Amino acid sequence: MKKIDILNGGYVILQDYMGSDLSVTNSARVSYNKKKDVLDDKDKGLIDFLAREGHTSPFRHTSLQFEVYVPLYVARQHWKHIIGSGFQDPFVAWNESSRRYITEEPEFYIPNANEWRSKPANSKQGSGENLSELSGGVFTKKLEEHIAEGERLYEEAMEAGVAPEQARLFLPAYSMFVRYYWTGSLQGVAHFLNLRLPEDAQYEIRVLAEAVQELAHEKFPLSLDALLKYN
Ligand SMILES: Cc1cc2nc3c(=O)[nH]c(=O)nc-3n(C[C@H](O)[C@H](O)[C@H](O)COP(=O)(O)OP(=O)(O)OC[C@H]3O[C@@H](n4cnc5c(N)ncnc54)[C@H](O)[C@@H]3O)c2cc1C
After folding, report:
1. Domain CATH number, residue 41
2. Same structural domain for residues 15 and 71?
3. 111 vs 13, 27, 148, 194, CA distance in Å?
4. Which one of 83, 196, 231 would you pick to mutate in the ligand 1 pocket, going by the greatest count of ligand atoms within 8 A of its CB?
5. From ligand 1's centre to the CA of 80, what distance in Å?
6. 111, 209 in Cβ contact below 8 A?
7. CA pair distance 2, 78, nearest whole angstrom
8. How far is ligand 1, taken at its centre, from the CA of residue 188, in Å?
9. Which of 8, 12, 14, 165 could pair with 211 as two cysteines, CB 3.0-4.6 Å apart?
10. Phi and psi, residue 180, nearest 5°
11. In what order do the strands lie in the sheet with 63-71?
């Protein structure tokens, strides 16, 4: 299983998948009771036609299951894509580690000194230029201290007998890594990519989207390119 490392400790894996470029075209050709065993140039044309004309249902006879490990603030943005990702039932397409049950050590996303961004000059959301490494280093250190204090209070509460499901309130949640499975059809994945690859999406979810794109492209090269081309 290929694993792409992202965001100082996170990763994305394509855990499982169903279908191929050929299954997309066979799903379209079933209307004529036709089926092929090998993809050819005509299939390339058909995939392009389907994406261009918005005949999207053949792309939904596919499924991609990703295991993702990212900071919670990225997972929250990713979760907004659960409607279009629902393969059969949107409510089963997302499962996440919650820290209600698990005893795994919490891990946190801490930007390096050269990874802190300034407030944008002309927009209410997003980021501007990177801060200097000197200023960034100060915030990396402050975040490390903040997380250490949160972990200390978490442990103190647990040792005092507080339930893990409440003790987790002390953990700095936005930066805490969470692990989840996200399953969607290729159409849902492409819709996510169309919204989260552009520059206006937050840098951290763009990094996640680029990894998802690389993994999905290996299995559905023609279909994914066509869906992204016609957006
Ligand atoms: C740059 C950026 C900034 C954002 N900022 C914010 C923010 O500040 N706050 C916030 O809450 N969200 C924000 N979002 C999230 C955004 O509003 C969407 O919720 C998110 O991108 C998921 O996309 P989606 O709604 O298309 O859902 P997806 O699950 O990706 O796709 C759903 C698909 O199904 C279709 N669909 C959904 N419901 C129906 C229906 N009932 N009938 C027919 N079709 C349906 C949609 O048209 C869409 O094609 C932001 C997104 C981006 C890209």
Report:
1. 3.30.1360.170
2. yes
3. 22, 45, 15, 26
4. 83
5. 6
6. no
7. 21
8. 11
9. 12
10. -150, 160
11. 3-6, 10-18, 63-71, 177-184, 94-96
Is there a domain that residue 107 lies in?
Answer: no
What is the pLDDT of the chain when averaged over all its residues?
A: 93
Distance CA 26, CA 9 (A): 40
Instruction: Please write the tens of the pLDDT for every residue from 57-96.
Output: 999 999 999 999 999 999 999 999 987 776 555 555 788 8
Q: Is-catalytic flag, 196?
A: yes
For the Cβ of 4 lying below 6 angstroms from any atom of ligand 1, the answer is no
pLDDT at 33 over 90: no
| 94 and 61 within one domain | yes
68, 136: one domain: no
Give the largest CA-CA distance in the chain.
Answer: 68
Range of the domain at 131: 113-170
Tell whether 124 and 161 lie within a shared domain. Answer: yes
Q: Output DSSP code: residue 173.
A: T
Place of tokens 């092929």: 36
Closest by CA to 21, choosing from 211, 218, 178, 229, is 218
Could you tell me if 107 and 9 are in contact, meaning their C-beta atoms sit under 8 angstroms apart? yes
Q: Which residue has the tokens 């050929």?
A: 22
Please compute the mean of the pLDDT values over residues 189-212 and round it to a whole number: 96
Name the strand (E) or helix (H) holding 209: helix 203-219
